[in-house]
Amino acid sequence: MNMRLLFTILAPFTLMAQEDISGLVEHVRRFTQVFALIEDNAASPIDAKAAFEGGVLPTMLRKLDPHSVFFNKDQFEQLRDMETSTRKGFGSIVSVLPGRVIVLQTMPASPSERAGLNPGDEIIAINGVALSRFDLEQMVEYLSYTRQKDALLSVRRQNFPRPLEFVLSPATLNAPTVERAFALKPGYGYVRMSSFEEKTGRDLRNAIEKLGGKNLKGLVLDLRNNPGGVFTSALETASLFLPAGARITSVRGRSKKEENIDVPADNQPYTFGLSVLMNEKSASASEVVAAALQDHGRAKIIGLGSYGKGLVQSVFPIAHGNGLALTTAYYYTPKGRSIQRKYEGAQIDPNLNQSKLAGVQPDIEEGPERGTRLRAFLDTNGLILAFVTEWLKENPKPQAGFVLPLITLDKVQQWLSARNVQPTLSDWSLDREWILNRLEQEIVNLTLGVELGDEVEARRDPQIQRGLAEIQSKNVPAGRAALVPRVDRRAVDTASNPKLLARHRPHSF
To answer: 191 in helix, strand or coil?
Structure first.
């Protein structure tokens, strides 16, 4: 970059000098002078593209907030691809444990099924990388990364002396965001939404109609771990439950005219009881929906405080296929509160929140399933799944509505004892119900599918059960109390001990 080019860059700013209240001209002049000195005198040649795209622009945007990002051409194309409801993958559902990945199900005609993967197979390495080295969070990230390209899987299959190898090529798979919809009890439904995409609002309505529509007595809407997504789908979702004319959210920004977004005048919402589940990973569009339902008294929010991301992101294409995602405004709840949390070192308006807590705070605080040392040991070592694999060889395939006989617990104790695992009487007594439920879940996962396995898991999920109890209590005649599920407070809190994390849900791979 020669000095003539520098002066060309500076020329428009020089004309602004007399009105330069923020000091922009002086900052630009100082930057170009420093860059010219570096280019002329640095020991090694300067790659201008790398300096700007990898250094100057990301650093500048990071000072605004963590969500304003510069995208090069390849990254911008990936961003566009992510706006669709399709994902690349191998078409399998896996159980992710610390250092272990077990295949639970393969989708019909998917790369996993065509390659010959079977339920119960353990993936021990991908592209030569042993999975035993990863913790839970690292494992999920690595699986997401590897399913984008051809992958060589090393698989341990029971009764095979050596690991098997499979080469899988990813395919474009349909990934519905309304992941689960089933009845918790007659008249009471459950729906889990993983994100908001173009078809989410329509898919949610269809799921509710299959569960009973307006004849439902209540619905538990699960937005845990939902990071948000397409904003219009969030508006459609909120409109399913709010009356015509109700305020959903407001949008305000320095360069954006304030916009109030209300439920359409001809809206005909569902009126059954509603509980919404949230946690610390519920963000953005899911927070807008939950806040609107909470502010209007339409639903009880159950779980933990949400992430606190109420930023309006605008995406701007720029030259040569690059792009910029920039925060241009903030979302406000119907009562006028921003859900955006503060970021240290970022230029988030400090006056956004009138309360100390950002995000959406629950009406009823209820933590996730708690762990114990015995549960962590059984899951980490894959002992539940190992027992189930052997059990299935000796017992007929279960049918829908399957319930495992209590006597199976005695067999589990004997099986564990033969492997030098002998829990204390107090530990065993504490976890008997959990072990029985987990055995049923894994048997159902491997034979009837993970969709039905999730229904088994829901019976022990304290947040789902609390949401159900809350809406049931609204339908109980006067003088009778609804049963609130008992949560075992003696168990070890997994949040304070990451080594005792409860088992994650099955993941797509």
So the answer is: strand
Kindly tell me if the per-residue pLDDT of 473 is higher than 80: yes
Q: Check whether residue 93 and residue 70 sit in a common domain.
A: no
Q: What is the DSSP letter of 43?
A: S
Residue 82 DSSP class = H
Residues 347 and 206 in one domain: yes
Strand partners, 95: 102
Same domain, 259 and 305: yes
Domain presence at residue 163: yes
Q: What is the pLDDT of residue 21?
A: 56
Domain boundary, last residue among 174, 201, 229 = 174
For residue 43, the enclosing domain spans 3-81
* Residues 328-366: b if buried by 16+ CB within 10 A, e if exposed: bbbbbbbeebbbbbeeeeeebeeebbeeeebbbbbeeeb
Q: How far apart are CA 458 and CA 424, in angstroms?
A: 27
Q: Are residues 254 and 160 in the same domain?
A: no
Question: pLDDT tens for residues 408-463?
Answer: 999 999 999 999 999 999 999 999 999 999 999 999 988 888 889 899 999 999 99
Boundary residue ending a domain (29, 54, 81): 81
Please tell me whether residues 185 and 71 are part of one structural domain.
no
CATH number of the domain enclosing 353:
3.90.226.10
| pLDDT of amino acid 408 | 92
Residues 441 and 498 in one domain: yes
Whether the CB-CB separation of 371 and 430 falls below 8 Å is answered with no
Do residues 263 and 246 make contact, with C-beta atoms less than 8 angstroms apart? Answer: yes
Q: Annotate 271-310 with DSSP letters as a single string.
A: -SEEEEEE-TT--THHHHHHHHHHHTTS-EEEES------
Q: What is the pTM of this model?
A: 0.77
Q: Which CATH number do you get for residue 138?
A: 2.30.42.10
Q: What distances in angstroms separate CA 229 from CA 110, 236, 338, one per listed residue? A: 26, 13, 18
Taking only Cα atoms into account, the Rg of the chain, rounded to an integer number of angstroms, comes to 27
Per-residue pLDDT at 217 exceeds 90? yes
Quick one: 189 and 46 in the same domain? no
Separation of alpha carbons 485 and 503, rounded Å: 20
Cα separation, 373 vs 408, in Å, equals 21
61 vs 76: CA distance, rounded Å: 16
Do 302 and 358 lie in one domain? The reply is yes
Asked if 384 contacts 439 with a C-beta cutoff of 8 angstroms, the reply is: yes
